[in-house]
User: Fold this.
Amino acid sequence: MAVYFFYGEEDFNIDLELDTMRSKLNPDFLSMSYQVLETPDYQTLVNSVRTMPMMFGSMLTIINAYNYFFDKKKTWFEDSELTDIEDALNNVNENLDVVFVVKLPRGENKKIDARRKLFKILSKHNSREFKTFSTFYPDTIVNWIKNRAKSKKISIKDDAAMLMVEQIGNDLRIFDRELDRLALLVYPNKTIEKEIVEKNCISSQDVFNITKSIMQNDKGKALTEYKKLLDIKHPLEILSVIQTMLRQWIIIKTVSSNQDIARMAGIAENRIGYLKKDLKNISAKDLVQLKQNLYEAEYRIKSGTSINPEAEVEYALIR
Assistant:
């Protein structure tokens, strides 16, 4: 088996890779052959790397290592400990896979310091950076969508996939959810066509109609637009799309360089001028407050403390 080092902003692709590795384990012994460790200390880390898998076959250990690189309040390992860790990684049991994972926040332009000794050690072991797809190259995202659809035993036409990119951007997790929903809508057929996407996928314009109405203090129109979307979407799905758009708009309002905005927000640079014009009367402060309101609503819905998810989102939009 082997040691792996996965890092980058595209956490969904990282999760897919980990799911693939996990699927190869014997399901009858999963509780003993699979473990996830959150930034383990030196001794726990070394012990886990030197684990001898038992008779149930291969074993997979995931090490969530973000804090090793970004915890400014703590030095995790001394040089002598790093030497021991390096030795342990070089001698992993043949039935053990160890994966170090660093998921970087999307849009924050965080980079791992490549000068760190730990980074140099991990980089020797099947290192792979998972970058977000750039909307400058929509064909790359279209190919991902088509491949993901294929993995779900369905297909999607090129123009339908391109429309999804135009409406959603580069959020792979949303694409994945949309493909599952669209597959149910076309069943028993196996092909997703453009017309289905047009009728059933939330577009950035749909979201903008809601938020623009709110910022113009036209709450009645905002609620009308929201209720239209409820015909085709669950409140949590609407929340997810709005939160994604709000993150992009906050970046537009707070970052000066169009090139930086395109990179951080996953927006095609030729669209930024139009979006700035649309957002000129909306303050970053109001966008942040709306995002917080929706986050609180999402938490209440997911935690089960909300008895009416539709009304929960409605209240968050207008309060």
